Amino acid sequence: MIIDMLRRMFGGTPDGMDCEESLRLLSEYLDGELDTLEAAEVEEHFRVCSACYPHLRLEERFKERVQSAGASGSCPDEVKAGIRAALEGAAD
Fold it and tell me: What is d(CA 84, CA 19) in angstroms, rounded to the nearest whole number?
């Protein structure tokens, strides 16, 4: 019990997920790319870690704004085409 409290105080959770690992997996977590167990561990870390939670909220808001900007059509077609081309080139 005391070990669990100390882990939480210093950025970890009882299962051992630490800040560095949680932040490394943040993008995959938000994109739904983690398996169920790993997603649950990351979610639990962000739920209990006050140091990492702001990073989660920042990334969530950023993703929401990017999605809404794309949906509203506020991005010029030339910019969208350039982004698509860059992504396609990076995938090759």
Answer: 33
What does the buried/exposed string (b/e) look like for 10-48 if buried means 16 or more CB atoms within 10 Å of the residue's CB? ebbbeeebbbeebbebbeebeeeebeeeeeebbeebbeb
Q: Cα separation of 90 and 11, whole Å?
A: 35
If one counts the domains in the chain, the total is: 1
Block mean pLDDT (10 aa), the chain, length 92: 55 68 94 92 89 93 84 76 86 66
pLDDT value of residue 68: 81
Domain interval for residue 29: 2-91
The model carries a pTM of 0.61
Which tokens sit at 45?
């870390």
Q: What tokens appear for 87 in the block?
A: 């992504």
pLDDT at 66: 83
71 is written with which tokens?
Answer: 């949906």
